[in-house]
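Below is how a single chain appears once it has passed through the pipeline. First comes the sequence as given, then the structure the pipeline wrote out for it. We keep one example in the README because the format questions we get most often are answered faster by looking than by reading.
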Amino acid sequence: MTEPRNPAPPDDSAYGVLRIKAGPGGGAVRLATLVRDLMERHQMARAEAVLSHLLPPLHEPNAPALYLLQPGGNALPLGDREWFTTGSGNQEQGRGVRSGGIAGGGFTRAPVGQSLGRGLVGAVAWLGRVWGGAAYTDAVSLDSLQAVAAYLAVSELDAAEVWGWGSAAAHADDAAPVSPFPLADFEALVTYRKAQKAANVAAGKPHKTIPWTDGNQLDLLRGEYARLGGHPGAAVSIAKDLGTTRQAVLAALEKERKRKASSPLPSLATSRAA
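Resulting structure:
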């Protein structure tokens, strides 16, 4: 849920290696990406997501640690760097001012930006002021390569435990699976049954039966059998495509024949009405 005036964000790898340390649990999540996740999950604008969800845990005594991504190695702890009231978070040099009057002297540059504090205190103050304000677009406040905060990150473990990172994907995994039926054609039937067989093998159940009665499998099988001429050689060809035996194909076709035979005929009244 980015604002309409914001372009798509760059890849996070542009800011450095997304790791805090080697091994399991050592991954990092860029803070700006975490903000976008909060915006999406809570359906709110950036400023509200930052003020309502991102910053409160960082005010706690046991606040999660912040890191700065590095181009060629693990992220480093934020440390006690100083933060300023500028768009980048750094103290910047202002425009040159002539000193010594018109006749002499040179230009001096006055520093721009007042200190917001050091370390986590300064970072939280800056985030509330810039990311939590409406004056800056996402592209400027979250993604500018000149902004210190664009390189801020937290550990994946903290992102998940404190802010719910990954919970949207988890909920998506819990959603009901999408049915593959109806299958489009015989080729789709072959793909489906081979995939089911592979899944059974992976689950340690290589001999588990794959039902023919699900979806439109039998209709496609009967159609292919008829297309090939409806003779024993057709069953052999189909069995080869499906990776099964001729007997299995004929048994499935017999099941289809019995299913058709047992289907109730329309009543006389229904036929007349039609």
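The chain has two domains: 12-174, 186-262.

See the next section for the split statistics.
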